[in-house]
Amino acid sequence: MSGVDLALLGVGALSDALRRREVSSEEIVRACLARIESLNPKLAAFVTVCAEAAVRAARRADGELARGRSRGPLHGIPFAVKDALWTKGVRTTNGSRLFEDFVPTEDATVVARLRAAGAVLLGKLNMMEIGFGPTLRPPFGVPRNPWNLERTTGGSSSGSASAVAARLVPLTLGADTGGSIRLPAALCGVVGLKPTRGRVSRYGLMGICPSFDAAGPLAASASDCAVALAAIAGHDRKDPTTTRAAVDDYTGAIGEGLAGVRIGVVEELMKSALLCPEVRGLVANAVAALEKAGARAEQISIPLIDHASAIYVAIAEPEGAARFRPYLLTRPHDIDVLPRRRLLSASLIPASVIPCARRLGERLRAQVDEALRAVDVLVSPATPSAAPPIATTGRVESKEDAWTTAVAGRSLFTNPFNITGHPALTVPCGFTAEDLPVGLQVIGRYYREADVLRVAAAYESITPWRARRPEV
Amino acid sequence: MDDLTPEQVKRMAAAIGLFIADDDLEDVTFRLGATLEHLAALDRLEPPDPAPPAILEPDGP
Question: Does the distance separating the beta carbons of A311 and B42 come in below 8 Å?
Answer without folding.
Answer: yes
